[in-house]
Amino acid sequence: MTLHKQFDVNLLRVFLAVCRTGSYTLAADELDLTQPSVSNAISRFKAVIGEELFVRSGRNIKPTAMANYLYEQLNDSFSNIEQTISGLEGFNAATSERQFVILAGDVVSHFLQPALEKIVKDLPIEIVFREPPDHDEDIMEKLYLEQADLVIDMQLPMDLRFEKRLLMRELPICVVSKEHPRIGDKISRDEYFDERHVVIKMRRFNLTAVDLLTDEVLPARKVYSVKSSLLTAFDSLASSDSLCISPRRYAEEYTDMFNLKLLEPPFKMNGIDIEMVWKRKHDKNPAHIWLREQVLSLVK
């Protein structure tokens, strides 16, 4: 490594941004720089370190082992400095320009996004909802690399890098068409397993929603269709004599639209615990505290 009497700390900001985003272009956008400026900064930092930091992989770039090592060693410390300074300046929702990113599935987004939009309507703040990746490690990596500010989902993995809080508990309900020819106001266990099912596939868990939410091993079901979205599942129910399991509050929103009725499941099912997870270093950051408080205010 080449020693420099006056090291330009701004090179660290650029290096960490490129690691986070995996792109010179996205890092330039994040830092409000030109792409050539980012490329030049990385070249200068490479000269200081004396090793390659990034390699091309198709249209993307990937960090080398040295870059990953440096990121692990430097990111938290550098971010803590920035957070300390930011904390001293404070956060004022009325004047602070900020974009927050929340990873959440369609059920959570359905409840929270419209309400949060009303909160920030006249503020210089943007809250963007994005679908979480299919795999736990990818979800938590996005949170750790600060490509997201919050993750709101069920059964998220945890370690010392993160904090979490139970946000709400959803109750599962059986959903069928009001015109179902055989199902009345109640459904028995035998009736449930005699009917065809719209199966909701939980991609993160490689399980169906029903299997995830019950402790018993259920008999095989007759499958009418397999869906990854409850909204498309409700559409299938409206035009068939099939049934499915859904979070109660979400299903209640669509009973009139799809002409559906809700029935208590004929066997014991666990509640759906929806958790909010954030990076531990942001626990006392004023902007992140504000975001979490707004989310919590909507589910009380």
From TrEMBL:
<dbReference type="Pfam" id="PF00126">
    <property type="entry name" value="HTH_1"/>
</dbReference>
<dbReference type="GO" id="GO:0003700">
    <property type="term" value="F:DNA-binding transcription factor activity"/>
</dbReference>
<keyword id="KW-0238">DNA-binding</keyword>
<dbReference type="InterPro" id="IPR036388">
    <property type="entry name" value="WH-like_DNA-bd_sf"/>
</dbReference>
<feature type="domain" description="HTH lysR-type">
    <location>
        <begin position="7"/>
        <end position="64"/>
    </location>
</feature>
<dbReference type="InterPro" id="IPR036390">
    <property type="entry name" value="WH_DNA-bd_sf"/>
</dbReference>
<keyword id="KW-0804">Transcription</keyword>
<dbReference type="InterPro" id="IPR000847">
    <property type="entry name" value="LysR_HTH_N"/>
</dbReference>
<keyword id="KW-0805">Transcription regulation</keyword>
<dbReference type="InterPro" id="IPR005119">
    <property type="entry name" value="LysR_subst-bd"/>
</dbReference>
<dbReference type="InterPro" id="IPR050389">
    <property type="entry name" value="LysR-type_TF"/>
</dbReference>
<comment type="similarity">
    <text>Belongs to the LysR transcriptional regulatory family.</text>
</comment>
<dbReference type="Pfam" id="PF03466">
    <property type="entry name" value="LysR_substrate"/>
</dbReference>
<dbReference type="GO" id="GO:0003677">
    <property type="term" value="F:DNA binding"/>
</dbReference>
<protein>
    <submittedName>
        <fullName>Transcriptional regulator, LysR family</fullName>
    </submittedName>
</protein>
